[in-house]
Amino acid sequence: MKRLIYIVSLLVLLSACKDDRGLVVGKIKKASKLATTEFTIDKIVYGVKRKRLLWVVKLNEAKFIAHSKAIVKAGVDLEKLKKEDVDIEGKSISLKLPPVEVINFSYPAELFRKDTLISTDAFLNKISLEDQESFFQDAEIDIRNSLKHMNIIEATEKKTRLMLETLLRSLGYQEIYIDFHKGELIPEITEGEVGA
What we know:
By secondary structure, this protein is α+β, with helices and mostly antiparallel strands.
């Protein structure tokens, strides 16, 4: 909310200098990262530890199942806005905003819940804390790499567009055109990169 008030005040200050694109860009950049959407993603964490005799004969399996949540905040990094991304002609303004990206990704351990009804240890085969950590890391990698297939970009662009249109209309702009550059939502990661 403080960031929204800050952006509104910046835009009010800019209303007196609507034709100076450089000044508009400079002031908008001061708002820095604008997080406009927050998503909570539920993830079932599943793992199996197999016990084998001489690496050939399968003896038993220990199973682990847990419920987890990831919290993803997406938005636009306004620091990347350039002078050529703003076009002002009288009461008309066109903005080409930087691409939507993940501003914050958290996978808090306090939201992990082991399913004790399904998770089972086997004879001489137990799921250790290290095994559990490995299962959660695999789940985090899967969530991160699946974000681009979710509706995050479209939802964030829509919300950002609506918010900025409302603010710009209050400053007297009658024609508002907002588009977004394309870019990577979140960098792909592979096993071993989590927490690095």
